[in-house]
Design brief:
Elements (H helix, E strand, L loop, with lengths): L3 E5 L2 E5 L8 H8 L18 E8 L2 E8 L11 E4 L12 H8 L9 H12 L10 H4 L11 H8 L9 H7 L7 E2 L2 E2 L4 H10 L4 E3 L5 H6 L8 E3 L9 E3 L3 E5 L4 H11 L1 H8 L4 H4 L4 H6 L7 H7 L3 E6 L2 E6 L4 E3 L2 E2 L6 E8 L5 E8 L10 E10 L2 E10 L6 E2 L1 H7 L6 H14 L10 H19 L9
Parallel strand pairs: 1-5, 7-9, 8-9
Antiparallel strand pairs: 1-2, 3-4, 3-5, 6-7, 10-11, 11-16, 12-13, 12-16, 14-15, 17-18, 18-19, 19-20
Length: about 475
């Protein structure tokens, strides 16, 4: 099957000859004439284009809010799509919409459909909303008018409730797999993906499109042949055991957050601050690694924790320490036709002190100026081993060898920390940009290790990782 098929308002929509880089936002506003979904930023920041996707999970449907502006149309295949026009029924507003009206939660109204969809996703137990405060659910939606108070109140008035998805399940089961279309492929298991990449080694791999989508909407780039990996079986697994946490490359951040938080609370908090919920519901662990950004949030933390990366080419696999994958700015150790398959994080030894800190101008939905991660194994007050890594300090996420050398074998005390902070300033030569000057980055990085010392200087507060 080459047509893209999805469920919309109780019907299966079928689209032939889909341009692989066409966005769902353009599809809605032009072809389907659903203009309630707005274009604000076209980069996944403002949330005005928020829609809700549903995908089969056994006998139920898993729902998640996403940004339509950077979602490519072939990624809709086999899913249910809900837009703001889908909510009102028989002349009555959905309770979330009614709460917005009653509480005067809309002024100019441009952002309102996106807020409604985010709150609607929460009301049906959407991905990433379980136990999440309303303010975090709407952190990926921006409003210039209301001050957010009435919108928060509308969310609180509509707590999550169970839904009857039987009709969606029946319709979704009627849709067959879409293997390919003009200029794109959608493999359904890792073997098929590996074979496709051998045949098309220069194809663009797309998982969540939270970064690649901007290449289209902002840079107007032609991405060539695209391979969508968001539904590849085997790349969506999260495996927890006593030795390690292994995460498939296509696992989305919102799907991995709970497992990462169980591994260490700082990892869970780091994920909470990666974009808005819509971004976390699309962006993947493997995609963040594979694109090699020097300011990607997750790689410094994973490097400090000693993570290993598994790559695959055809039937061959190879494993390497994650820090060796990043060679220089924009260059990774990944050959044509090779793809990231999974990342494995070994459980830290007893007595390991872990700190992961992201510094940015805004708390929510902002890119790191500096992201620092520390893993120190402390035995009887002595630092037996030290792994320190930073993002935003160089052209790649990288360890701090001088700082690690000062720490290793020394006593965990203020003198050691000061020496390590000085060494840290010699480990990197950061650039100045709009997120921070080189001087700021150097001073902030050194202060992070000082802060860790002040937070943990009482022996009783040094906990197992």
């Amino acid at each position: 099957m080459s047509a893209v098929q999805f469920v919309l308002d109780g019907e299966i929509v079928s689209l032939d000859a889909v341009e692989p880089s066409a966005t769902v936002l353009d599809l809605l506003r032009t072809r389907l004439q659903r203009t309630g979904t707005k274009e604000g930023c076209a980069e996944g920041d403002c949330g005005a284009c928020t829609v809700v996707l549903g995908e089969l999970d056994g006998e139920r449907v898993r729902w998640r809010a996403v940004n339509a502006c950077i979602l490519f149309v072939p990624m809709l295949h086999g899913k249910a799509l809900v837009t703001v026009e889908s909510l009102a029924r028989d002349g009555a507003l959905h309770p979330v919409q009614q709460a917005m009206v009653d509480g005067h939660g809309s002024q100019c109204g441009f952002c309102t459909p996106g807020f409604v969809m985010s709150l609607y996703a929460r009301s049906i137990g959407g991905e990433g909303t379980d136990g999440t405060p309303v303010k975090d659910v709407i952190a990926g939606n921006l409003c210039r008018c209301t001050g957010y108070g009435p919108i928060l109140a509308a969310g609180e008035a509509n707590p999550p409730q169970s839904t009857d998805d039987k009709a969606f399940v029946e319709l979704l089961r009627k849709i067959g797999p879409a293997r390919s279309g003009p200029g794109w492929f959608a493999p359904h298991d890792a073997d098929e993906l590996a074979a496709l990449l051998v045949e098309h080694p220069q194809a663009r791999i797309v998982a969540g499109a939270t970064d690649v989508g901007l290449w289209v909407t902002k840079q107007l780039r032609d991405l060539g042949t695209m391979i969508f990996v968001g539904d590849v079986a085997g790349l969506r697994d999260v495996v927890e055991d006593e030795d390690a946490l292994t995460i498939g490359a296509a696992v989305r951040y919102s799907e991995a957050r709970n497992a990462l938080a169980r591994f260490h609370p700082d990892l869970g908090e780091l994920v909470r601050r990666i974009g808005g919920l819509q971004v976390r519901n699309a962006g993947t662990i493997g995609g963040n690694i594979a694109n090699g950004s020097p300011i990607g949030d997750m790689p410094p933390a994973l490097i400090a924790l000693g993570a290993e990366l598994t790559l695959r080419h055809g039937g061959e696999q190879r494993t390497m320490p994650l820090e060796q994958f990043f060679l220089s700015y924009g260059v990774q150790d990944r050959q044509p036709g090779e793809f990231v398959e999974s990342v494995r994080i070994p459980r830290p030894a007893s007595g390991t002190l872990i700190r992961i800190v992201k510094l940015s101008k805004r708390f929510d939905s902002d890119i790191s100026a500096v992201c620092g991660a520390f893993a120190l194994r402390i035995d009887d007050g002595c630092i037996a081993s030290a792994r320190v890594a930073f993002g935003g300090m160089a052209g790649i996420p990288a360890r701090a060898p001088g700082c690690e050398a000062v720490l290793t074998g020394a006593m965990w005390n203020e003198e050691t920390v000061e020496n390590a902070a000085v060494a840290l300033t010699r480990d990197y030569t950061p650039l100045s940009d709009l997120r921070g000057s080189a001087a700021y980055r150097i001073e902030a990085a050194a202060n992070l290790i000082r802060r860790m010392w002040f937070e943990t200087r009482e022996p009783a507060s040094v906990l197992d990782g």
